[in-house]
Amino acid sequence: SAAGKTCIIQRIALDIFEPGTIATTTAAFTRKEMKYNDADITLSIWDTAGQERFMSVSPIYFRGAQFALLVFDITNKTSFDQIQYWFEQLRQKSAVDTNTYLIGNKSDLESERKVLESDAKQFAEQKNMKYFETSAKNGGGIQELLNSLCIDYSSNTDEIRQTQKVILQQKKKCC
C-alpha cells in the first residue's frame, strides 16, 4: 500500500505524475497503446488495491494475466516485506507462465532508501522475477520497464504463434 502503483500506471499510460493520488480501493482499468518493432501493442492494465482490507479482492484480477508487476516503495521496508504475500497469491491464482516483475518505486528518494537494491535483486532472482527501479514522479526507469514488457510480450506472442502453428500442422497430418 502507498507504494505508488497507481502513479506508475499513470506515468506509463499518460506520462503524468499527480501528487496526492488517493489510495486505490477498487480495481481500475486502463490501456496503453504503443509501437514496438513496428508492431502495435496494447497493454491492458489492472490497478488493484494493496491495502490489507482489500487483499481478498485483488487475486480475482490475477487470472489470465500475462504480466504482473509487484510494486514496493524503496523507502518503506514493510512494503517490501509484503511482496512475499503478493507473490504467493499470484502463484496460486494466476497462470503458471505469468511474467512477473518486481518494481522498486520512488527511486527519486534515494537518500531515504530503506530497502537495499541488492536485497531486492536477490529476492527477484530467487523468485524468477525481473527487477526494475522506477520513479513515477520523474519517470526514471519507466521506459526501461516498458521496453522489457514489450520484449517479453513479443516473445510470448511468438511462442503462442509457434504453438498454434504446430497444433495446426498436427491436425493437417491427422486428417
TrEMBL record:
Record's keyword terms, sorted: Nucleotide-binding
GO molecular function: GTP binding; GTPase activity
Domain of life of the organism encoding this protein: Eukaryota
CDD domains registered for this protein in UniProt: Rab
Record SMART domains: RAB, RAS, RHO
Listed InterPro entries: P-loop_NTPase, Small_GTP-bd, Small_GTPase
SUPFAM superfamilies according to UniProt: P-loop containing nucleoside triphosphate hydrolases
Pfam families given in the database record: Ras (PF00071)
Gene3D superfamilies reported for this sequence: P-loop containing nucleotide triphosphate hydrolases (3.40.50.300)
Name the UniProt record assigns to this protein: Rab-like protein
